[in-house]
């Protein structure tokens, strides 16, 4: 079943489009990587999917509806982990989890059981009553990750998740992602850590100057670039060279 469908999406910040005629889908239980150079349009694509930017052309459907057709259904179908954590300075970790539960209508019992396992997984049990000003960068990121996983949505949208996390945090995140996938959730993740993307993503979308240069499994990409034994790093560099030759 298709969870997310972008059809010919063109958009950006001004009338001059940043992303151009993007089309791709994400199915149930799939982890899809969004890969591209700095400025390729990954975050801009994500901003269109989460609804902070509206397409100039084309259509985005999540669980069958566009944002305009059914705002509540659309919004409750995903959770988003931004590249830079956005936390409330005056709320503790516990209160962040409670606020998220309230916003998504999660009952107290579910909140308690999901929080307990997330706090353990991300080694944050002792920090429940801490305020964000006392958290390290990685801890701030973990708060956002825990809030996103607390919601248990159909689709997770994760913007460059690995940079601020320590190796245990990365492993915990990958484990959580695997578990959610097994339950049928879908994940769209942008990252520059190509070895991790190659290892964990079911499919990859290579963005180049706001357009899809190639998409599919690693084998599909190797065929598209006619590089049979290439790693994702090799393919990425080949794409960069194409840019240089233009
Ligand atoms: N708020 C903004 N207003 C106007 N232009 C923007 C804005 N944010 C990004 N852009 C432009 O949109 C283009 C794509 O940027 P975007 O942030 O989507 O790239 P990215 O692929 O996420 O890059 P990175 O890997 O560096 O995070 C760039 O040319 C950038 O200058």
UniProtKB/TrEMBL annotation:
UniProt-listed InterPro entries: AAA+_ATPase (IPR003593), ABC_transporter-like_ATP-bd (IPR003439), ABC_Transporter_VariousFunc (IPR051782), P-loop_NTPase (IPR027417)
Claim: Ribonucleoprotein is one of the keywords in the record: no
Molecular-function GO terms, alphabetical: ATP binding; ATP hydrolysis activity
Keyword terms of this UniProt record: ATP-binding, Nucleotide-binding, Transport
Taxonomic lineage from the root: Bacteria, Bacillati, Bacillota, Bacilli, Bacillales
Protein name, UniProt field: ABC-2 type transport system ATP-binding protein
Keyword ATP-binding: yes
Boundaries of every ABC transporter domain copy: 4-234
